Amino acid sequence: MADVKIIQTLSVMSILKKERIKVFHKENGGVSSARNLGIDNVQGEYFSFIDDY
């Protein structure tokens, strides 16, 4: 079921994705690892994390 949720989420994000919004997918590694990936790819002045819980 988790794989289905990931696929559905990525599908929605690809539709909503704008030029200024970047979506990254990372296989397991924990929240800190995923956030570090986001921080490493920041290109603008502002950034935000959007969690599903």
UniProtKB/TrEMBL annotation:
InterPro entries: Glyco_trans_2-like, Nucleotide-diphossugar_trans
Protein name according to UniProt: Glycosyltransferase 2-like domain-containing protein
One of the Pfam families matching this protein, by short name: Glycos_transf_2
Species in which this protein is naturally found: Phocaeicola plebeius (strain DSM 17135 / JCM 12973 / CCUG 54634 / M2)
Coiled-coil regions, chain positions: none
Domain Glycosyltransferase 2-like: 9-52
